[in-house]
């Protein structure tokens, strides 16, 4: 058994397909199948159900996947730790950023960090907050920026930003002339929300439920600009971060600053509890703390 066998096995398990995995790792499908078959023979178990159109893990395969991922994570941590000893001025890390957070706060921050540390590479992964938490737990990214709170039993947390959500309505909406609104008064409105994989989706729904109603969701999107266009087209209302609201044309929509009770939108840098962080990743955390302090 070697690392190649384990990594090839994990690739097939992730993609549920030998052909897709072979394309991703640029290895012929017969060679890939032979490598996985060799792993099965060495372990004495069948790892995949091959009788269906998609390749699925057997019960034994699920156990091997769990331990194989732990082995690969440990190997990655070993390589990173050794590299840190010999390359103190260089390095790389993987950063998970939800699109709305990235667009709001981080283009300038990333640029200035790279100007300070041109030999450090930041690999960006754009996903919703829930997916970022999952990737951190699986050891597939090093750091994430997410909406707080998160489970402090699973993650190390550095708070960086405290904001509140603003109500955005079409310019012709009956609330457009006001300054403040009670959240409970929105029970009959059509909501346009970020998709469920974004923590912002849950934050809005939970706040409404605490006020005694389930929001009527007309549309969901992963793109803030599409949400904006739907509001302009009088398709509903939304609760959005003020940094995004600042980009809107006030001739087309109205942003109300006061929502009672307020809905917090607090951000933090997070990483896996007891996980290894390279010097490059720790340098990023310290730099972001400095910027937002």
Automatic annotation (TrEMBL):
Q: Which Pfam families match?
A: HTH_1, LysR_substrate
**Stretches assigned to the HTH lysR-type domain:** 1-58
Q: InterPro entries given for it?
A: HTH-type_LysR_regulators, LysR_HTH_N, LysR_subst-bd, WH-like_DNA-bd_sf, WH_DNA-bd_sf
Cited CDD domains: PBP2_CidR
Taxonomy, superkingdom: Bacteria
Write the record's keywords in alphabetical order, separated by commas: DNA-binding, Transcription, Transcription regulation
Is the keyword DNA-binding assigned to this protein? yes
- Describe the family membership recorded for this protein in Swiss-Prot or TrEMBL: Belongs to the LysR transcriptional regulatory family.
Cite the PANTHER family for this sequence. Answer: HTH-TYPE TRANSCRIPTIONAL REGULATOR YBHD, NITROGEN ASSIMILATION TRANSCRIPTIONAL ACTIVATOR-RELATED
Q: What is this protein called?
A: LysR family transcriptional regulator
Q: Which organism is it from?
A: Paenibacillus chungangensis
């Amino acid at each position: 058994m070697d690392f190649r066998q384990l990594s090839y096995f994990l690739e097939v398990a992730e993609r549920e397909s030998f052909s897709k995995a072979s394309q991703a790792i640029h290895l012929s499908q017969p060679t890939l199948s032979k490598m996985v078959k060799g792993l099965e023979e060495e372990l004495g178990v069948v790892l995949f159900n091959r009788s269906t159109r998609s390749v699925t893990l057997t019960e034994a395969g699920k156990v091997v996947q769990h331990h194989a991922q732990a082995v690969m994570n440990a190997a990655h941590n070993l390589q990173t730790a050794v590299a840190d000893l010999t390359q103190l001025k260089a390095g790389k890390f993987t950063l998970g950023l939800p699109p709305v957070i990235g667009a709001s706060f981080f283009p300038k921050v990333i640029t200035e960090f790279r100007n300070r540390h041109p030999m450090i590479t930041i690999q960006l992964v754009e996903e919703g907050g829930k997916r970022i938490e999952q990737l951190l737990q699986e050891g597939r990214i090093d750091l994430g920026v997410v909406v707080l709170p998160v489970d402090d039993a699973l993650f190390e947390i550095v708070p960086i930003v405290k904001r509140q959500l603003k109500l955005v309505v079409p310019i012709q909406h009956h609330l457009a002339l006001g300054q403040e609104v009670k959240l409970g008064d929105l029970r009959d409105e059509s909501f346009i929300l970020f998709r469920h994989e974004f923590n912002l989706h849950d934050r809005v729904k939970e706040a409404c439920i605490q006020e005694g109603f389930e929001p009527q969701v007309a549309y969901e999107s992963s793109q803030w600009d599409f949400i904006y266009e739907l509001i302009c087209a009088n398709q509903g209302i939304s609760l959005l971060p003020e940094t995004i609201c600042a980009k809107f044309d006030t001739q087309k929509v109205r942003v109300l600053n006061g929502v009672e009770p307020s809905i917090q939108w607090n951000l933090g840098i997070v990483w896996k509890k007891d996980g290894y962080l390279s010097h490059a990743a720790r340098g990023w955390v310290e730099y972001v703390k400095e910027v937002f302090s």
